[in-house]
Structures are given as structure tokens and as C-alpha cells.
Amino acid sequence: MKNSLLQILLFCCISYSTFAQWQQSAGTAGLNMQSLLTNGIYNLAGGKTGAYLSTDSAANYSLSNTGNDNAGPTRGFTKDNNLIYTCTSQGAFRSSDNGATWVSKSVGLTNLLGGGILKVGSKLFYVGPTGVFISTDQGDNWSASGLSTTDVRCITAIHDTLFVGTNGAGIYKSIDWGANWIQINNGLGNSTNFRAIESKGNTLFAGGPIGTGVYRSTDFGANWTLLAGGLASGSYRGFASNTQLIVAGSFGGGVFYSTDNGNNWTTINTGLTDLTIFDLELNDNYIIAATNTQGVFRFALSNLNLTSGFSDSDVNDAISIFPNPTTNQISVKADDKLIGTAYTIYDHIGKSVFSGIIINENTSIEMGNLPGGIYMLCVGDNMKQISKIIKQ
Q: For the chain, how many structural domains are there in total?
């Protein structure tokens, strides 16, 4: 009986050890991978040899590069309801069949080399050595959208505010779709090179250069803080996030995750045979990592014992603002889940202009003394509910 019990315990330990580690995705061994995207059941990976597709939660990938760049790396993906886009060494490409085939879409790009691509609402953005480009027709045509003399390496957005990381000039933001850009480097010290930037709710995370680490901003980029809490110093190239966690990939240090918005981090590298991470992604069941020389790996989210809280959909359904636009006062209609939680209003440069508490289901906020413009109302735990207010 005693021997049987020991055998059962040993089996459980071995099984958990085998399960609680990274698994290399078949079809990617030995490959350079630089970008990832999940679109429902479709998981895409891109790298030096083009685009690859998995339809089994990143367990197996196969080359899916017909029509896409075959001369250089696929560096980024984005998507909308019907289409998937890549940024590559040869410009932008678009797929209407979940990556089975691709069509070049680079008319108007003055430099084809891409650093990042992002879809925000009906607008598509492409960044590279000659700045930012915008398309309003799903990539059919592109036009310059600022920073034309700046090498832009990455892009993200909070609501309709854009943020970009650059090679040599730090971080910029725009509240008018790139017509104007504001440099937002307070707290970054001498760090000027940023190759990864991520928005999680209203929190920004930016991957700094060698010798730094991950910077965080909770005020729309007005101020940045270099994070510690178990996060190794180094260069960071990839992020992924959902409502429960943020995951960061370092250049040589592997993967770290945080469940408290970046205050504390835990390393998860068991099974990774390449600790140089170019990108990260999340699907329903796995963290997915793109590595420099050993392809794609996946790590089961069930290993992390995540607890659920407010989801984005829960919070979005829990609040509404009227009138909006407004000339003086707004009323915030909140679900009883949010009563007693804090709110903050930020102006267009990320400065806090007013804060208070949601006191009941209809909380009035006076804005008559504020100048006209665009403001952000952030409500709830970690201020993760974001609503735009237009003050006339």
C-alpha cells in the first residue's frame, strides 16, 4: 500500500512537471520567429522564412506564405473582423482567408521595411524607418501620418490615442490619428530605443534597451517607471496581455508574467530551449512565444491557476456616460458592482485633472471649468474601464 501510494505521488509529480513547461510547436524547430497573432482558431507566426499557420492551438504549424514576403522576415500581424495583415521587409500584405493566401498592399508606403502594424477601429497603421503611415481603406492605400524622419519600431493604442516606440527618440503619442505627435519620455532616463509596446486597459508597458527592462505608465504616457519585482534587467522585445495577466519576453532572459499589473513578476522558462523572445501571444488556453532560433513554443494557462475578476465585457456593460459630448456636467451611470470605486479624469496629455468616487448608480461630475477637448474617464479596479469624453 505504501509503495503504491509513493508510485501514485511520483506519477503525479512527473505528470505535472511534464505538463507545466513550455512545449515546442511542431513544424517550427530551428526557425527564427518574430511575430504572432491569434484569430479565433487560427494562430499565425511570422519570421525569417515567412508566415506559418496553426489551427490546433499552436501545437502544429505549417508554412502559409503564398503571396506574402518571401525575401525577408514577417515582423508583425494585426487583424479586423474579416482580414489579417502583415508587416514585412517588403511592405504590408493582406489575407482574406485566415492566412492561406496573401496580397501585397503597399501603395503609398515610402519605405517598405515594417516595424509594426496595428488596426484601430476603421484605421490601419504601419510603422517603419520613415515614420507612421495610415490607411482608411483596409490597406489599399497609405498616406504619411507623422514622424517622417524617425525610425519607428512599434505601435499600440488606448482607445483612440496612439503610442509608438522609436529607435533613438523614445516614445511618442498622438490623440489625432497621427496629425500631431508629442514626445513622452519623462521617467525613461537615457533609454531611447523601444522595440515593443503594449496597452493593457489604460496601462502602458514598454520594452527598453539592453541594461534596462520594462517601463510602465499608468497615466497615458505622461510618466514612466522602470519595473522590478522579479523582472530581470535586459532588453524586452515582446508582450501579450489580457484582463488577468501581462506577459513579457526578454532578449536572452526568457518569459516573465505578472497578475498584478506589473508589480510582481514570475519567470516561466522550463522547457524553453531559446530564451531570446521576439514576440508573445495569448489564445484561450496557451501563452505562445516566438523565439530567435528555435521556433514557436506554447505554455498552458492552466498551469498559472489564474483567478477571474472583472472581465472587459463585464466592466464595459457596467458603465455609460451622458450627455457626451457635454458642455458642463456628465452623469456616469454605473452598475452596483462599481459603486464605491475610484475614478480619474485625464486630459489629452495624460495629466490627471479630476478624481473622485462613484457614489451611486448615477454619479454627476462637473466639467464646466475644464477647457474644451478630449478627456478620458477611468473607473474601477486598476482604472481599467476607459471612456472617452468630449468637452465642448
A: 2
Of 304, 314, 225, 197, nearest in space to 258 by CA: 304
Please state the pTM of the whole predicted model: 0.78
Question: Residue 304 carries which DSSP code?
Answer: G
CATH number at 67 reads: 2.130.10.10
Long-range contacts of 255-261 (CB under 8 A, 24+ apart): 255/280, 255/287, 255/289, 255/299, 256/230, 256/231, 256/232, 257/287, 257/304, 258/229, 258/231, 259/304, 259/306, 261/200, 261/203, 261/216, 261/382
> How many Cβ atoms from other residues are within 10 Å of residue 144's Cβ?
15
Q: Grid coordinates standing for 209? A: 534597451
Tens-digit pLDDT profile for residues 153-177:
999 999 999 999 999 999 999 999 9
219's grid cell: 497615466
| Domain end residue (candidates: 281, 304, 327) | 304
Instruction: Give the dihedral of Cα atoms 35, 40, 41, 42; nearest 10 deg.
Output: -30
Say yes or no: 234 and 211 in one domain.
yes
Alpha helices in 217-311 (DSSP H): none
Instruction: Look at residue 69 and tell me if it is in a domain.
Output: yes
> Which residue positions in the chain have pLDDT lower than 50?
1-19, 308-316
Q: Are residues 274 and 201 in the same domain?
A: yes
Q: Do 237 and 221 share a domain, yes or no?
A: yes
- What pLDDT shows up at residue 360? 83
Specify the CATH number for the domain of residue 350: 2.60.40.3080
**171 close to 194: Cβ distance less than 8 angstroms:** yes
For residue 12, the model assigns a pLDDT of 39
Contacts (Cβ under 8 Å, ≥6 apart) of 245: 257, 258, 259, 304, 306
Could you give the count of Cα atoms lying within 13 Å of 329 in the half-sphere of its Cβ? 6
Query: Which phi and psi angles does 259 have, rounded to 5°?
Result: -110, 5
Residues 57 and 191 in one domain: yes
Query: If we measure between CA atoms, which residue out of 103, 176, 188 comes closest to residue 138?
Result: 103
- Print the domain residue range for 234: 22-304
Q: Is residue 252 part of a domain?
A: yes
Please identify, among 304, 337, 367, the residue that sits at the C-terminal boundary of a domain. Answer: 304
C-alpha distances out from residue 237 to 122, 187, 278, 314, Å: 27, 20, 5, 31
- Amino acid residing at 284: D
Same domain, 292 and 324: no
